[in-house]
Write a structure and sequence with these properties.
heterodimer; A: about 300 residues; MetI-like fold; two-stranded antiparallel ribbon; two-stranded antiparallel sheet; about 75% helix; globular; B: about 350 residues; 6-stranded mixed beta sheet; 8 helices; binds adenosine-5'-triphosphate; binds magnesium ion
């Protein structure tokens, strides 16, 4: 009797829960899953003459993502252009993540070890770049690293170099730009993790004969791992889909996957191919994250 | 038996801060701790106990003076090179490691072979009776169990000296008593020198081979619990260790007399003195017999004992500790006239 009413009450609580979350669920479905479905459907359609799609089913776009046909003899081979762009994007994103981590960890540590009244000031300074439009910040970097920009003029003026260093329109420029843009996204979660870190554990480590390096590797890094995972995801995912930075700093030739997708919807006039590439990017990111998060958690269980 | 020194502090001083905000936490502290000894540092909060311990561990470097370990000067050595381990007040267990991994940490850092690490860890876990919890994380343990992990972790590398900074203060009374005897047993079984910090005087008296009493950065007295309790060198020590009656007196002609004129002790030097008597050494007798006349003010029941508060002529208060009779009522009504007597040789004369 009482069990029955309890179960009834539980059902009712569950129903109320669903009702309450209905608006959020609706927005999620309409706003996130809906567009994704459209992209998925478009990737199986035929490109129209100028732009858009014709409602005729075709696996051509997905085929073209991986394979290409020679225009003269019709032989089919692996599409190395697409793969090269994907590979470049992954490489640049991983490198960006590693650099932001290497720079962000000492920064976050510095902020977390300031007296509490100074911490908010430093955090505030870290977030200042967010106040300016990304495009403007990227052009500012261009201004700095241009051949006749601030950096080269200074080095030339001091006589350190005799020829300007070609940075703009190289992968290095893209890396500099992405590191600058995404660094705060690494610093903030790292700071949150270090802020929770009990500094007394450092002394416990030293007391038990650990060197500084051993304390970092065996005590600090494993404990702030959630911050490292969060920061890496926050940097890696947008890096992989970066559009503005490679466009402005990398020029037309150093495309990343984001630029290439844009090309298909614009000049390329091949919406299905753009859609298929977008879906592939999504799959790559999802799989990468699944592996990453799982590896991160397994490590913690085993170490 | 010859006594071998493990830790020695020579004229150690520690000043925090500079200029006007400078604060002297340790002032000319010299101490020798014997090998295998259970040595306790006792003193009120803020007197510098932790600072002295941190100087020995290497987390703090003394402003002046030297620290020796088995005769070797280690003042400049970093903590990870000193064969000294600490049981932290907060335990500071590694939250991401299991009990086994916590205990193995020091041994692994010393580069001991795997088999030896495993064997030592197993032995340590048996020593602190935590075999059943080997696979747990610190967050899944009770306070007392965490305490034991901290002990096992610090003992595992077999340090020359184990430093314990108020390791029992976070435990409830019953568990604390249990851990006190546990600690004594561990110290006995391992033979490691223990330097133990507490501000609980009973803990210090019951556990230690020797006690060092500190106040305001100075080491006031070092001695066995008996010496410290029965022959305190100053009013501060007498007051801090146990309860004491302090009575004003005057030494003249080789005899110390209370204000009432009663001669209570002998003393060569003349001048005003303080007479100290422990409450358990104060006897109460019926009014009219030989003794110092007093008036019962009130009785406080403590279970095994009853504290009888009395006032002497001139308003000085004296407390006597008498064993509670089976009825629980010591039989001293407030306002009753009595006389007090001090047990022979129980009176300490302290300079003012
Ligand atoms: N890093 C520091 N900077 C400035 N002052 C300090 C520092 N560490 C300790 N002190 C001061 O030195 C004095 C002694 O501190 P210590 O921690 O040794 O006391 P303690 O005897 O361990 O006290 P407790 O019983 O409360 O733990 C205190 O007055 C404290 O404020
Ligand atoms: Mg302390």
């Amino acid at each position: 009797m009482s069990i029955a009413t309890e179960a009834g009450r539980e059902r009712q609580t569950a129903r109320n829960g669903w009702l309450l979350s209905a608006p959020a669920l609706f927005i999620l479905t309409a706003g996130a899953i809906g567009p994704l479905l459209i992209v998925l459907v478009y990737s199986f359609l035929t490109p129209a003459e100028y732009s858009g799609v014709e409602w005729v089913f075709s696996g051509e776009a997905w085929f073209r993502v991986f394979w290409k046909t020679d225009i003269f003899d019709g032989t089919v081979s692996l599409n190395d252009t697409h793969l090269a762009i994907f590979w470049r994007s992954v490489k640049l994103s991983v490198t960006t993540t590693l650099i932001t981590f290497a720079v962000g960890l000492p920064t976050a540590w510095f902020i977390a070890t300031r007296p509490p009244d100074q911490r908010s000031l430093w955090l505030f300074l870290i977030t200042i770049p967010f106040w300016t439009n990304l495009l403007i910040r990227t052009f500012a970097i261009l201004e700095v690293i241009r051949n006749d920009g601030i950096l080269n003029s200074m080095l030339l003026g001091m006589g350190i170099i005799t020829e300007p260093i070609q940075l703009v329109f190289t992968d290095t420029a893209v890396l500099i730009g992405m590191t600058y843009v995404y660094l705060p996204l690494m610093v903030l979660p790292l700071f949150a993790a270090i802020d929770r870190f009990d500094m007394r554990l450092l002394e416990a480590g030293y007391d038990l004969y650990a060197s500084r390096w051993a304390v970092l590797r065996r005590v600090i890094l494993p404990i702030i791992r959630p911050g490292i995972v969060a920061g890496s995801i926050l940097v890696f995912v947008p890096s992989l889909g970066a559009y503005v930075t490679p466009r402005v700093l990398g020029g037309g030739n150093n495309m990343m996957i984001g630029n290439f997708i844009e090309l298909q919807f614009g000049q390329g006039r091949n919406w299905p191919l753009g859609s298929a590439l977008s879906m592939l990017l999504l799959i790559v990111v999802t799989v990468a994250l699944l592996f990453y998060v799982r590896a991160a958690n397994t490590d913690r269980r085993d170490v | 038996m010859t006594r071998e020194t493990t830790v020695e502090a020579k004229a150690v001083g520690k000043t925090f801060g500079h200029g006007t905000s400078a604060f002297r936490a340790l002032d000319n502290v010299s101490i020798r701790i014997d090998r295998g000894e259970f040595f306790t540092l006792l003193g009120p909060s803020g007197c510098g106990k932790t600072t002295l311990l941190r100087c020995i561990a290497g987390f703090e470097s003394p402003s002046v003076g030297t620290i020796l370990l088995s005769g070797r000067d280690i003042t400049a050595e970093p903590p990870n090179r000193r064969p000294v381990n600490t049981v932290f007040q907060s335990y500071a267990l590694f939250p991401h490691l299991t009990v086994t991994q916590n205990v193995a940490f020091g041994l692994e850092m010393l580069g001991r072979p795997k088999a030896q690490v495993a064997a030592t860890v197993a032995r340590m876990l048996a020593l602190v009776k935590l075999e059943a919890f080997a696979g747990r994380k610190p967050a899944q343990l009770s306070g007392g169990q965490q305490q034991r992990v901290a002990l096992a972790r610090a003992l595992a590398p077999a340090p020359e000296v184990l430093l314990l900074d108020e390791p029992l203060s976070a435990l409830d009374l019953k568990l604390r008593k249990e851990m006190q005897s546990e600690l004594k047993r561990l110290q006995h079984e391992t033979g490691i020198t223990f330097v133990f910090v507490t501000h609980d005087q009973e803990e210090a008296l019951t556990m230690s081979d020797r006690v060092g009493v500190m106040s305001a950065g100075k080491l006031l007295q070092v001695g066995t619990p008996r010496e410290i309790y029965n022959n305190p060198v100053s009013r501060f020590v007498a007051d801090f260790i146990g309860e004491t009656n302090f009575l004003p007196g005057v030494a003249r002609g080789g005899v110390v007399r209370l204000a009432s004129g009663e001669a209570v002790a002998e003393r060569v030097a003349n001048g005003p003195v303080t007479v100290a008597v422990r409450p358990e050494q104060v006897r109460i007798a019926a009014a009219g017999t030989r003794g110092i006349p007093a008036l019962v003010a009130r009785c406080v029941y403590f279970g095994t004992d009853t504290h009888v508060h009395m006032t002497l002529e001139g308003g000085v208060e004296v407390v006597a500790r008498v064993q509670s009779p089976p009825s629980g009522d010591a039989g001293f009504a407030p306002g009753a006239k009595v006389v007090v007597l001090f047990a022979p040789d129980s009176v300490q004369v302290l300079d003012d």
